[in-house]
Amino acid sequence: MSSTWSASSGSDIAQLAKRTALRVALRVGQVAHAYLVVSPPGVEGVGVALWFARGLVCTSPGRRPCEQCCECVAARRLSHPDVQLLAPDKGTLGIDRARHVIRLCHGRPLRSERRVVILDQADTLTHEAQNALLKILEEPYGPSVLVLVTCRPDMLLPTVRSRCQPVVLRPRPDREAARRVAVEYGAGEGDAELLADVASGFPGRVAQICEQGRWRKAVRLVDGILDTAKEGDDLALLQLAEEMAALPDECLELVLDTLRSKLRLLLRQVLAGSPHATRAWASPDVIIEAVRIVTLTRRRLNNNVNRKLCLDGMVLVLAELVNG
């Protein structure tokens, strides 16, 4: 999954970057040889990495990046010879791409003091490619800075993570802005509220979900699970679980996140005495336990368990809960 959202504004990216160690590194001139930029899904980690790269090649005697000098302008246009941005070609970053990164890092800067190589979606690096990159991480070449960008740092080998200075991006959620973005993508009022919750209030994540085109399928599966659990139709529930089990990882994560958010919204409706709360899901205790079950299932699926059995168990437990 890409860690970027190209519609983020330059000012938002700058403000986000300034709350990290990257700003300190630019100010004091103490730059590490490698950074690992970790961003939540939908947050433009690459934008922050490019902001840092502009700061490293900037020629301004004052604040860097100044965004005005020819070096900053060239880097922003991705035409600067000392700023290289690489991303996966076909889903993964293999050994050939890793060797290319090593060659770039070993090359001397052409017109700046440093050469910056940014590797987006670093979580798609194969293990072979990651092991190859250890060469440049363990024996850095002076003028080069390698920046790995990912929203899934757990997919990187511990040996790779430990040799990079971590930069964790912590954007501030804005649920109202997230709802507005959802509406711009054609979501109705209810779906906009649900999308904002799934995205934890991050507008960029809302846009990313909508652009990936998986949202409608996720909502259909979630509505099917809740309605079928209420009806107590175990066979239909197991069929839904089977359909979920066949989904790619990112799609399944979105379905589970949507299910959890839908339950949270139901809980708010129940506690507020809303007439929209369904009778079957009218008990706060039942909904809270259902949220716990979905959260536990999502966690278990990250631990290489049998996906089908795990999802079967989840939907059947939800049916037991709602039918008491």
State the name of the first-level CATH class of the largest domain.
Alpha Beta
- Sequence of strands across the biggest β-sheet: 2-3-4-1-5
β-strand amount: 5-15%
Sheet of most strands:
5 strands, parallel
Structure classification = alpha/beta
CATH topology heading of the largest domain: Rossmann fold
Overall geometry: elongated
Mean pLDDT: 87
Termini separation: 39 Å
> What is the number of helices?
15
Which H/E pattern describes the elements? HHEHHEHEHEHEHHHHHHHH
Rounded to an integer in angstroms, the radius of gyration calculated over CA atoms is 23 Å
CATH superfamily of the largest domain: P-loop containing nucleotide triphosphate hydrolases
CATH architecture of the largest domain: 3-Layer(aba) Sandwich
Please report the total strand number as a whole number.
Answer: 5
Q: How many domains make up the coordinates?
A: 2
Q: Helix amount, in percent?
A: 55-70%
What this model shows, in words?
The protein has 324 residues and is α/β, with parallel strands linked by helices. It folds into two domains: 159 residues, Rossmann fold (3-Layer(aba) Sandwich); 110 residues, Up-down Bundle (Zinc Finger, Delta Prime, domain 3), CATH 1.20.272. Helices cover 56% and strands 8% of the residues. The chain has 15 helices and five strands. Helix 11 crosses helix 15 and helix 13 packs antiparallel against helix 14. It starts with 9 loop residues before the first helix and ends with a helix.
